[in-house]
Design a protein that fits this description.
CM_dom_sf, alpha+beta, binds the ligand C=C(O[C@@H]1C=C(C(=O)O)C=C[C@H]1O)C(=O)O, Chorismate Mutase Domain, subunit A, 2 domains, 284 residues, SCP2_sterol-bd_dom
């Protein structure tokens, strides 16, 4: 084997190790979330096993597998492993004996009060790796794939604005986004009626943490607050940056695809809760 091929193989294996580590860490978090879901269902006196929900989990996995070029049976098997772990974390045997252990004891497990439940979820999210620890996994994703995903999302969200002429000021202009805690940056340029994403030089850039950029995108915090508190910083051509910011604020939220709105909203809330939990743990 040539030396170069040997080096490339070693680097690929290191990347695979990173992905494996991330997958196992996420499975561990998923198991804890499933356990918390089980406590919620007991509190509501609902059956712990939820067949329709499991079917929904599998159906979503198949849609994602098709989008990402993952074999359907691989996605099926992976989710079955995750769901079996999810059941086990809720006191269900893998063969779904519906929590016979409770019937044997005649007592339901202690019900957490709402404070202890939210504090459990808070503590759980505090165990999530901070975004800066996710950075190296995100950098494993090929740059072209990352830029392609951003380009498709931006084009889909901003297509109505382009059609209305609201983005004419962006013709041939280059606006950068820098996610400081993930070490990610990209530049969006309007070329004709299309948006192009690359990592070249930008005329103006918006810089902030992943959480604050998500909160802005999800409309959970307003731009004035984020910029006033310098949680988001505009660099370079201020006029271009402010024009782009004002456009985003005027963007009719209902024009954003529902799935993306839900994803942004949930992602931003999860990121904010995890950040608060990390801060609480650091202060303790
Ligand atoms: C996690 C839950 O409990 C169980 C485990 C599931 C899973 O691991 O995805 C889905 C449904 C339930 O059978 C839930 O109800 O959401």
């Amino acid at each position: 084997m040539s030396v170069a091929a040997g080096v490339a193989l070693a680097e690929l294996r290191r990347a695979i190790d990173l992905v494996d580590g991330g997958a196992l860490a996420l499975l561990a978090v998923r198991g804890r979330l499933a356990a918390a879901a089980g406590r919620c269902k007991r509190r509501q006196c609902r059956p712990v096993h939820d067949g329709p929900r499991e079917a929904q989990v599998h159906a979503r996995a198949q849609r994602l597998a098709a989008r990402w070029g993952l074999a359907a049976d691989t996605a099926q098997a992976a989710m079955e492993v995750a769901i079996v772990d999810g059941r086990r974390r809720q006191g269900l045997a893998a063969d779904l004996d519906q929590g016979a252990a409770w019937a044997a004891t005649g007592t339901m497990p202690a019900m957490p009060n709402s404070t202890s439940r939210s504090s459990r979820i808070h503590a759980l999210l505090g165990r999530l790796p901070p975004p800066v620890r996710l950075a190296r996994w995100l950098r494993v994703m090929p740059v072209q794939a990352r830029h392609g995903a951003i380009q498709r999302a931006c084009t889909r969200v901003l297509a109505p604005s382009i059609a209305r002429g609201d983005l004419d000021f962006m013709q041939g202009r280059r606006l950068g986004v820098e996610v400081t805690d993930l070490g990610l940056r990209w530049v969006i340029e309007r070329r004709g009626d299309a948006l192009h994403v690359d990592d070249g030089a930008a005329e103006a850039s918006v810089r902030g943490t992943a959480t604050d950029l998500l909160l802005l995108a999800a409309r959970l915090e307003d731009a004035d607050t984020l910029f006033f508190q310098r949680r988001l910083v505009l660099t370079g051509d201020t006029e271009l940056g402010l024009t782009a910011r004002n456009l985003l604020e005027r963007l009719p939220w209902e024009s954003v695809p529902l799935g993306l709105r839900i994803g942004l909203n949930r992602g931003a809330r999860l990121a904010r809760t995890a950040r608060d939990a990390h801060r609480a743990r650091a202060a303790a």
